[in-house]
Write a structure and sequence with these properties.
444 residues; alpha+beta; Elongation Factor Tu (Ef-tu), domain 3; six-stranded mixed sheet; 32% helix
Amino acid sequence: MTEPVHIVGAGLAGSEAAWQIARAGVPVVIHEMRPAVATFAHRTSDCAEMVCSNSFRSDDDVMNAVGQLHWEMRAADGLIMAMAERHRLPAGGALAVDRDAFSASVTAALRAEPLVSFAPGEITGLPADGHWIIATGPLTSDALGRAIAAETGAEALAFFDAIAPIVHADTIDMDIAWRQSRYDKGETEEERTAYINCPMDRTQYDAFIDALLAAEKTEFHEGETAGYFDGCLPIEVMAERGRETLRFGPMKPVGLTNAHRPEEKPYAVVQLRRDNALGTLYNIVGFQTKMKYGAQTDVFKSIPGLQSARFARLGGIHRNTFLNSPTLLDERMRLRSRPHLRFAGQITGVEGYVESAAMGLLAGRMAAAEALGRDLGPPPGTTSMGALVHHITGGAEAKTFQPMNVNFGLFPPIEARAGRRGRKDRYPAYTERAKTDFSQWLAG
């Protein structure tokens, strides 16, 4: 009988890895410390719990590298994409899900798979032998983190990841707010009205920025440093970089028309995205924060339309641990000093739900092949998945390595048809090439 592959962590990466391994005919054991050992961010003991947002971002597989990654995961029979599609919510051109139903369905699918078994409890050290995938994510336990640091000979890098607040929909003042996706994007009316928008004029915006800057913030523990990932900056950190920064980020007003006052262009707009299938909860898009709870309530209720808002969850901040993967992992995501250990997900230095799950998919396929006596290399760097894994395992500069989302900047350059270089020509050329190359990798 084939020796099982052990996975530490049942997040998105671990869940996807387990699914891929079992589908390859190899037994897999999932080790998950929850609920015996809790984290501050998780609410359940389900697999693939989404703790920050309910969005997998753009689902456009022609013009967007994330959408292309969705396509590749679907082509590879990915569990995460299948369950996301099953519990999809209207979100314009994005793929957003009912997070509780999504994680419950991932858990049910894994528990129904005969080759998957669960071994509850915390893994506190690095196993000496066997086939293992470490997919413990940004909240790797202190004990396991120390074991990894001791083995690698270098302290794990860390940044602080922030959680956006969630509002009860029935407490939003729809006489002020209105429903509209940016640029009315979407094929159905439900998609075109997937977001709730709260407008601000110049005076309201300036007052909001003043309150944000003055609000009491969470203090860091002794010895911690605040190295934020630019794709997930707390709003107050963005505001500190310039008073207009938020107007060109999560509060940009472009592509939106106030349904109540169409003749008045908002100076800034706060968007809320549907967070569950019932449409009873909405998260404030891009509003991750490290403000203290009392300050959050005061500041967020100053937003027009949210003056009576009731919060299902306030924002938070936590330490996010990741490896310096370019120096520690080989191209098959194995720890160079202990090749029987693979790493997957956010701990490898990728950023985002989709990227984490994709690295789980890849690690799972590689581990299954190895358990069966075969060798499987990564997809070509011309694909979204290949570009990402090539970046974290050698393409990035180790001295300045930081977490990375998938993007076309990681792809090898391509000459668009007739020498045209605009992104409207280049991006479809990237994704067309990626689909061809990924399909060939799967077939091979």
